[in-house]
C-alpha cells in the first residue's frame, strides 16, 4: 500500500477551536492557501513513485475536504474535479458537542470533559451520531481495506490520528491527541508512517 494523506485546510471552526466533526464547514482564506501550498509541495516531491495522474485520488465527501482536494489538484497541474469521494473518510462525529469549544462544553458538562481527559480514545460524546476515536478507527480500517493502488487522499484530523494508531501502532489515547498540521503531507506504505 502507498498512501499520501493531506488534512483539509483551515476553517473558521479550526481557528476558533470549535468541534466541527461532521458539520460541513467551508475553508477560510488561510485554509485555501494551505491547500494550494500542499498541491505545489506534492507536485514538487523529488521521489514520487509514479506520475500524479496515475494515483487514485479520493476525499471525504464534506465540502472542506472537497475544496482542499480541488485546490491541491489544481496547484499540482491536474483537472480539479477528477477524483472520487468515500463516506468512510468523514470526520469523527462529536454529536451534541459540534459547534462548541471545549471551554463551552466544560461550562455545562465538566464531568464529561473529565471522563474525556481520562481516556479520549474510547470516549463518546453525547448525541446519537457521536463517535469515539475507537469507532472512527474501525471505519478508517474499512477504508484502508479498499485501497487497491497508490492513493492520494484528503481527509480530516481525526481520520489521520487513527492512521497513526492503525499503521504506526501509536497507543490510542496518545494518537487521539497528536497535533495534525494542515500544511503538511503524510506518507505511509502500510507499515511505516510519517510527515514528508
Automatic annotation (TrEMBL):
The active site is at residues 8, 91. The lineage of its organism: Bacteria, Pseudomonadati, Pseudomonadota, Alphaproteobacteria, Hyphomicrobiales. It holds the Pfam family His_Phos_1. CDD domains: HP_PGM_like. It comes from Hoeflea halophila. InterPro entries: His_Pase_superF_clade-1, His_PPase_superfam, PG/BPGM_mutase_AS, PGM_Phosphatase. GO terms for molecular function: phosphatase activity. One of its GO terms (cellular component) is cytoplasm. This is Probable phosphoglycerate mutase. Substrate binds at residues 7-14, 64.
